[in-house]
Amino acid sequence: MPEPIRLLTADGARSSGLSFDQPVPRQLVHRAAIAEVFVTDAVVQGDDHYLVGAQWPRDHAFYHPTAGGGTDPVLFAETIRQAMVYLAHRHQGVPLGSRFTGRDIAWELTDTGPLLVRDEPTAALLDARWTWLDRRRRRLRVDVVLSVDGHVCGRGHISAAVLGERQYRILRRRTDFAPAGPPVPPVRREPAAHVGRLRAKDVVVGRDPAGDGWRLLLDQSHPSLFDHPVDHVPLMGLMEAVRQIGHFVAHAGPADDRAWSLTAFDATFTTFIELDQPTALVVRSPHGNTGSPHRIPLTVDVEQARATVATTRSVWSAA
Question: For residue 131, how many C-alpha atoms fall within 13 Å in the half-sphere facing its CB?
């Protein structure tokens, strides 16, 4: 993935026409609420090469700063998703009303220093490169390099397939018949402080009373995770669940004064994760397998009806 070749600072980006003045129209990133739109603009840099601007708030009802005072890292993931959708509609000829089915996503923060929350919102730049993996089947991938204040501080990618509404409905009819599986006992949400949340309403996981695993507990009225109605578990809901489990694991050992934060995440999906099926979150990495005193790698499999429907890998780093 090439480094950003010319425009690294927000001022330099503005000089070439990139705007940070307001969010893009919400329908172009598949959001209902303006407060959930972070992409502000995109300018063409070359064939399938773009510079995307985003503004990250100092604080947000859901994406709040880390314990170390940094911008919520999951904002980077949501901005990658929004950039993909915006570029598709604005620059790649994908019509509004199309559906995007995610195949995989990965991101990593390589330098968290520029992401410290300061006295004004963060102007983030994504150097983005679009690739049609299969034009006939409308399969795509977007690779990005993140820079803030002239410093490269992260990279990531997302891949998806684009479907028309009719294609999507046919696909969902084919996958709506997952076996119900055996009855599962009720699960209580984990206390917010145990999983790094400030509010109980933002907790999306609970420990399975039948074993050592976790269960996904999504509230479809949540204004950020379910900004608009969807018929399957959204990517950001799953990422938040893994983030909460990671926080629990990172803070389960001997107490210390270090601030742990999520610095890398990737996920691959084999099928849709259904909202009406019990969802198990199985931690595969041994509890004490940190690899380093400053890094905790975590693998979490997502299971429905005893079948793995997604696999995630994440890294927690100590400040």
Answer: 9
Gap between the Cα atoms of 197 and 202, Å rounded: 7
Residue 302 is classified by DSSP as E
Domains of the chain: 10-170 (3.10.129.10), 185-318 (3.10.129.10)
Per residue in 22-77, pLDDT (tens digit) is 999 999 999 999 999 999 999 999 999 999 999 999 999 999 999 889 999 999 99
φ, ψ (nearest 5 deg) of residue 273: -100, 115
Please, which residues have CB within 8 angstroms of residue 160's CB and are 6 or more apart in sequence?
A: 84, 100, 101, 102, 103, 139, 140
Asked whether the CA dihedral 138, 229, 41, 3 is positive or negative, the reply is negative
Query: Is this model's pTM higher than 0.90 or not?
Result: yes
Higher pLDDT, 20 or 180: 20
Using CA atoms, how far apart are residues 177 and 193, in angstroms rounded to an integer? 37
Name the nearest CA neighbour of 42 among 129, 138, 161. 129
Question: Which residue is listed with tokens 């089947």?
Answer: 137
Greatest CA span in the chain, whole angstroms? 60
